[in-house]
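Dear colleagues,

As part of the handover before I leave the project, I'm documenting each prediction I ran so the next person doesn't have to rerun anything. This entry is a single chain, and its sequence is reproduced below.
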Amino acid sequence: SRPMDERGDRPGQTNSLTAALKGILFDFDGTLADTMAGHYLAWKSALGEYGIPIEVDDYYPLEGAGLHEVARKFAKGSTWTEAAIGELVRKKKKYYVDRQPMTFFPGVELLISELKDRKVPIAIVTAGHLDQLRLSVPQRFLEQFDALITGDLFVRGKPDPEPYLRGAARLGLAPEECVAVENSPLGVQSARRANIYCIAICSTVGRDDLIGADEILERFEDIRNSIKIGQILGTKLRHA
């Protein structure tokens, strides 16, 4: 295969309108799994230990941001050291893992299984940390993915393109050979800035908040209606 440059791109790669699509990069929370309420309650409990109140509308706009970035947004003041921020993040993750029942959106498990069977390269690209993911998601589900790109693995989180560039590189693909599936405005920005075709799902916010995406779908089950997903599945079916 052709060598990648530092951004994960292959020299001379054609754009997403003409490149052959080969892989899919999935956000996790709010895209594959109905977890956003659980994350909010975990943050509310952790911050409550410090007397910091939050409401749903305070948290949801931050969806897709890194855990430490979210912690810093809420824990304002000069007394908060990096060590204290780290402890807040640890408390949040513990509340989440201890309480969160894992519920996938309808159609998710079937599609991921089919993609695995057809050897379509797939990855998770999430702001969540690897320990949180492994402790809260069934191993049999995670092991179907070729790569797990988590928030503790990159320096600049969404909306920076780094998470999705890393996801494409880990699959051995150029960004233009991938499709991203997202549900948050920050995630959509990250994918598009990485020059990756983005399908957005209206699972947690409305269409108006996702207008930067190439396609907007009401629910995950509609993803099979996407021409781009059909192209990937069709190509793999012909070569199976």
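The mean pLDDT is 88. Strands lie at 23-26, 122-125, 147-149, 178-182, 197-201, 215-217.

All the best with the project,
I.
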